[in-house]
Amino acid sequence: MTDATAEIRAALAAMGLASADCDYAMTPLGGGVSCDVFAVDLPDRRIVVKRALPKLRVAADWRAPPERSEAEVAWFKLVADIDPRWVPKVLAEDRASHVFAMEFYPLPVWKLELAVGEIDPDFAAKVGRALARIHAVPAEGFDNFAQFRALRIEPYLLYTADRHPDVAARIRAIANSVAGARLAVMHGDISPKNILVGPEEPMFLDAETACVGDPAFDLAFCLNHLLLKSVWHPGHAEALGRSFAALKDGYAPDTAMERRTAALLAALLLARVDGKSPVEYLTDERQKEFLRTRAKSLLKDTPPLDHFASAISR
């Protein structure tokens, strides 16, 4: 038994979900960069248990407070009050060990569908509409911006700025704008890997970076993945471009937010190549260099969002 499984078993007992001597299987789930995530097969049901890590599993030295698990649980509960279809049901929480348990949902992951060319712009529009409704909730609580800074501003924006002096001033200005905004409760990691394709609506996972900040970050973060995948799989670029437009139109940002989103999107394109957390599927150096060139051009002369998909078409 590893330290992780032993600690999670102790937490399950503390939460009253399984006795210490109960015999059950624990299966690691993918995507555990910042957390240990296990499917747990209890005698009567399967659940998911998640434990935040103080040091993330990436090549660079990247640390963040494990108390972020509390923010994730709070965000799930906030969104459940808007539409319970949009988040998993939280079953219990053990704050002392930074562990919580939630229902297991056998739904496809949006990232995996996009990767094989199953691209549905109507679903992207649903993601945009849901996100806009969540951001419309009054910004109360979630006073944990330090976690967002540690997990997003420093490793994505500031780290990238340090590696690219020619656009560093522009990226740092964007980072300062995000750091100073307190406009809405944002998720902080709206990525296709964190969205399940439900039968009616999207379901959002991994809200450990949730805090009051700039909602433009959420919109830009998700739109960025659609652009990155169009470079990775040029044959899907047209359908991904339609999904990009559908997600943006579903959200319907006002003029000021669209401007902030476009600036962030240009910076994040470069960050997902040369930040502390580069996307794992871009391994071709020619594709990486293409994105560096395009991202820098977009940082220096940022167009409206509607022009981004064509700006990086090959």
Descriptive overview:
The chain has 314 residues and is α+β, with helices and mostly antiparallel strands. The chain folds into two domains: 3-103, Phosphorylase Kinase, domain 1 (2-Layer Sandwich), CATH 3.30.200.20; 110-311, Aminoglycoside 3'-phosphotransferase, Chain: A, domain 2. Helices cover 48% and strands 13% of the residues. It contains eleven helices and nine strands. The chain has helices spanning 3-14, 68-80, 110-115, 121-135, 145-163, 168-180, 215-232, 237-251, 255-274, 285-300, 308-311, and strands spanning 25-28, 35-41, 46-52, 90-94, 99-103, 184-186, 195-197, 202-204, 211-213. The strands form three sheets. A five-stranded antiparallel β-sheet has the order 1-2-3-5-4, with helices on both faces. A hairpin with a 4-residue loop joins strand 4 and strand 5 (99-103). The chain is globular and about 60 Å long. The N and C termini lie far apart (49 Å). The model has no long low-confidence stretch (mean pLDDT 90).
Structure, briefly:
By secondary structure, the protein is of the alpha+beta class.
Write the SSE topology.
Blueprint: H1 3-14, E1 25-28, E2 35-41, E3 46-52, H2 68-80, E4 90-94, E5 99-103, H3 110-115, H4 121-135, H5 145-163, H6 168-180, E6 184-186, E7 195-197, E8 202-204, E9 211-213, H7 215-232, H8 237-251, H9 255-274, H10 285-300, H11 308-311
Antiparallel strand pairs: 1-2, 2-3, 3-5, 4-5, 6-9, 7-8
Helix pairs in contact: 4-8, 5-6, 5-9, 7-8, 7-9, 9-10
